Amino acid sequence: MKSGPQTGRSRQEVIQNELMWHEEEAHRRMPIDEFLYAPPAFEPVIDGGIAFLEAKPEKWLLEVGCGEGKESVKFREQGLKAVSIDLSHVQLQRAQELMQEKFGDGAMFFVQANAEELPFARDSFQAIYAKAVLHHLDMDIAYEEFERTLMEDGRISITEPLAHHPIIQFGRFATPQLRTRDERPIPFDEFEQFAARFSQSEVNTFFLLAPLAYIFRVSPKGERLFRKTHTFLQRVDARLFRTFPFLRRFAWYSIIKANI
Ligand SMILES: C[S@@+](CC[C@H](N)C(=O)[O-])C[C@H]1O[C@@H](n2cnc3c(N)ncnc32)[C@H](O)[C@@H]1O
């Protein structure tokens, strides 16, 4: 189960390319990321993923691919002992700046590391949090690293964009410059198969009609209407996913909540 097109390139080349893109190009995504992910649009997904971990303040939590640190901030707010890793030093720098802005210091464990070769011993973590990073990784290697570093009874939440939401697919098609060469949103079936590797797992889907609400976010005055419509459509989506499970494959995002 490999993520990324099978180009015949070695993982080392892919990782090097990912590193360079995230150091040099990722800033181009910032306006669109702000538009799509600014709170409270993703809070139900993010907060659900964090709450599931039942992270204990005295044990270590690993955040994989922390990017600009939006969730690293939440871990600190909750008094958790987190190590946040990312391949890109530039992303980690931004995460540290965000920490400084919010708390007046950058005190947090930020480590530049490749998620496919985690620099931690077996059973290091009670919880692992990974959001929007698995689709950059070789899924077989990532699973082995999660399995190796998560202790027995540990919990993991993995949140990922899926491959078949029609509007999001169109957006991706129209803006290839905002993505790395090898990343690949994951088809729902593959994501479910990945979830099945864990001893216990649950897969939830989000956002089918809810993305339509973004039409109101285009104007700053539309933010209130965006929030109301987005909340309402999320409820409709939840009901649609329950009633017509085949629609789950067209969700924009999905989350695995699992135990090793
Ligand atoms: C789409 S961003 C998601 C960032 C953050 N988790 C979020 O949801 O806002 C993907 C992040 O994964 C990082 N990344 C990509 N490949 C990686 C790897 N092999 N190891 C660690 N981080 C990686 C990128 O540098 C980038 O910051």
Molecular structure report:
With 260 residues, this protein is of the alpha/beta class. It is built from ten helices and seven strands. It is globular. The mean pLDDT is 95. The chain binds S-adenosylmethionine (SAM). S-adenosylmethionine binds at residues 15, 18, 22, 65-67, 70, 85-88, 91, 114-116, 131-133, 136-137.
Give the distance, in angstroms, between the N- and C-terminal Cα atoms: 18 Å
CATH architecture: 3-Layer(aba) Sandwich
What order do the helices and strands follow?
A: HHHEHEHEEHEHHEHHE
Strand content: 15-25%
Compact summary:
With 260 residues, this protein is α/β, with parallel strands linked by helices. Helix content is 42%, strand content 18%. The protein has one domain: Vaccinia Virus protein VP39 (Rossmann fold), CATH 3.40.50.
Descriptive tags:
260 residues, binds S-adenosylmethionine, alpha/beta, Rossmann fold, globular
Question: Mind sketching the topology for me?
Answer:
Layout: H1 11-24, H2 30-37, H3 43-53, E1 60-64, H4 70-77, E2 81-86, H5 89-103, E3 109-112, E4 125-131, H6 139-149, E5 150-161, H7 166-174, H8 188-195, E6 200-206, H9 214-217, H10 223-243, E7 253-259
Parallel strand pairs: 1-2, 1-4, 2-3, 4-5
Antiparallel strand pairs: 5-7, 6-7
